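Hi U.,

Before I forget, here's the chain from the pilot set. I'm dumping it here mostly so it's searchable later in email.
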Amino acid sequence: MKQNHGLDQGRLASTGPSPVSMPGETSLPRAVPRTAIARVLIRAARPDDLEEATRLERRIWGRMSATLNELQRRLFALPEAFLLAELHRPGRAPAIVGLTNGLLWTRDFPRSYFDYERMLPSSTHNPRGDVLYLASLGVDPSLRGRRIGLRLLQETIEVGRRRHLKYARLIASQRSRILCARAGFEVVRPLPRLYRQHRDLMPQPVLMELPLI
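Structure:
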């Protein structure tokens, strides 16, 4: 699997004192500020990433977040579909700022709302499935709006295509539908009875799908 995908680069100008010309002195060229490059790398997750990934899940999803054990099971079930967005900044340690992870389903699953809410996603993984179900997708709230979520979606879609799966599916909220639509997903049906106790985190959930073949 590709480990080094496209990079998002943002320029952070470092400011410093500029030379000042005094009367009677020859004017010197102004110093050009040095430029620090911040970049985001999309890569496959490793087992030693999961504690940091769990903390990010909590920041994004709060009480709906997956536990460390659940993320470990998802990584074991389908490692190539567990992707991270890693922020690199000069002079700082890399930081995980986004993640997505997927499992395999059959298209007739789930059959009821109870399957969504009462079963851990890792327990529903079906190695013979032809649907890539994205169990989690999120970006650190401080970095939203920078196309990191879109890049995670696009890379996960390519995982499904390389495996010759038929569809990618996810549950989107009112807030995330636009992002998912940009990646090509379309609404299959609303799920008005799903996550009623979590409406602040999942307003107006819908099932969305993208054909992969």
